[in-house]
Amino acid sequence: MDMKDTPVIITGGASGLGEATAERLTAQGAKVAILDIQMDRARDVATRIGGLAIECDVTSPDSAQDAIAQARAKHGVARVLVNCAGAGTGKRVVGKSGPMPLEDFTKVINLNLVGSFNMTRLAAADMIASDPIGEERGVILFTTSVAAYEGQIGQAAYAASKGGLVSLTIQLAREFAQFGVRVMSIAPGIFLTPLLYTASPEVQASLASSIPFPNRLGQPAEFADLASHIIGNRYLNGEVIRLDGATRLAPR
């Protein structure tokens, strides 16, 4: 899909992978709406790139529906949805203090998996009801993780949430195929995102040393590069692409 004047929605677009993708697609001519709960940061990014900042809790049906309606009113029906909103927590299922509180698990599942599904069902409905652009109507992109395949100790909630997105990729690609809507996922490895900015140089170096090549942390711009290619390559559909420098996560 050509990005020139194409309406795009990016959740979690105020920082990290989402911010880099917003910058890249805007540079290609897209009309980008940044949906986030960090509104100060979202406004800063939107001002810099000439986009639109909209407050959105992706886990809320009402908030998501309202945010998509605002983006539609400003830019038109979104033809691309990039799901970058998400978070994780490190906690063993059974730790020194006993079983993990159930809410610690469900909170991550709700944000990463249910939130992405919530946004997808609403954005896809708009895409399906619209006229095709060439041979397709839209593109939906999930941000999953290599943890979906090699979840580390303490990553039960995160791995399960990202694994759910892996499973949804081919299922939704099949379901939406008749409408010309593609569904793809990127599974990043260890990237230099806001979570790692606060880590010491020693910790960052230790993480980078586990990556075969390039022997460094991934850059958000490299995620944006792949997202851009996926959107532009119409024969990519129903697949999860690992973006990890050939790393495989150790148990801990």
UniProtKB/TrEMBL annotation:
Q: Which InterPro entries match?
A: KR_dom, NAD(P)-bd_dom_sf, Sc_DH/Rdtase_CS, SDR_fam
Check the record and name the SMART domains matching this protein.
PKS_KR (SM00822)
Task: Name the Pfam families for this protein.
Answer: adh_short
The record's GO molecular-function terms, alphabetically, read: oxidoreductase activity
Q: Which Gene3D superfamilies match?
A: NAD(P)-binding Rossmann-like Domain (3.40.50.720)
Q: Which residues form the Ketoreductase domain?
A: 6-189
Q: Where are the transmembrane segments?
A: none
User: What SUPFAM superfamilies does this protein map onto?
Assistant: NAD(P)-binding Rossmann-fold domains
Write the record's keywords in alphabetical order, separated by commas. Oxidoreductase
Q: Which family does it belong to?
A: Belongs to the short-chain dehydrogenases/reductases (SDR) family.
Protein name per UniProt: SDR family NAD(P)-dependent oxidoreductase
| Source organism | Pusillimonas minor
